[in-house]
Amino acid sequence: MIFDLDIVEPIKPERIVANLLCRVPRSYGHILAVLDTGSPSTIISARDALILRLSTNNLQDSKPISGFGRGQLPSKHFRNFIFFMKSRNGEAKEFKLDVSIADASGLSEDFRNSAYLLPSIIGLDFLNQFGLKLYVDLKNNTAYLEMNEENI
Amino acid sequence: MTEQTEVLNEFKALEAGSSFISKNFKMLQGNYPDQFIAIEDSNVVANASDLNEILSKVEEKKKNLSQLIIEFIPSGNVITVY
Known about the structure:
The complex is a heterodimer.
Chain A: E1 2-4, E2 6-8, E3 15-24, E4 27-35, E5 43-44, H1 46-51, E6 60-66, E7 72-86, E8 92-102, H2 109-115, E9 120-122, H3 124-129, E10 132-137, E11 142-147
Parallel strand pairs in A: 4-9, 5-8
Antiparallel strand pairs in A: 1-11, 2-3, 3-4, 3-7, 6-7, 7-8, 10-11
Chain B: H1 3-23, H2 25-31, E1 35-40, E2 43-48, H3 51-60, E3 69-73
């Protein structure tokens, strides 16, 4: 089963994006998640959490998220986050994955607005848990995830 | 309607919006630098420099959030890494 990915290309190849459909109860909606092999974890951004009205009130704290710079972003652990991806042959495949949700609720307005600029991220845990292989061919503008039959 | 059919219908809107962003990113960067935009099908239905502001605009227009893509369009003046 193959899941095509979008290559967003303003001037030169910039990022590879997966189209996800969130189906957590009461939080249906779209997520454009950047595929990031530099991230060990899948992270739902503070922006998408707000748009999807994902409640983080009763969730346990997860490890803070850090990147470039000195700051860290608090996060919550969300068990069994449910989303779909559409395969190349037109089938919708459901995935359940524990994810971190960036939690901007306790931040000052400036930091919160900065946190809202960051996208959701598909990390290596997703590829690992579902046995997905990632193919990228920027020259031919092609990127996709491939799932072996035994993992379907 | 089965869940599979329902989900596939929702994917149509998502793919149209996502494809619009990929194919028109340079235009969007020129028109909406460092702004949030809301895409419905292949149309920009709202823009704002702040996430809460665009959510208010979308609400005022009585748009269904689950049918929209809301994205931030960086100006391109910085290298964005995640």
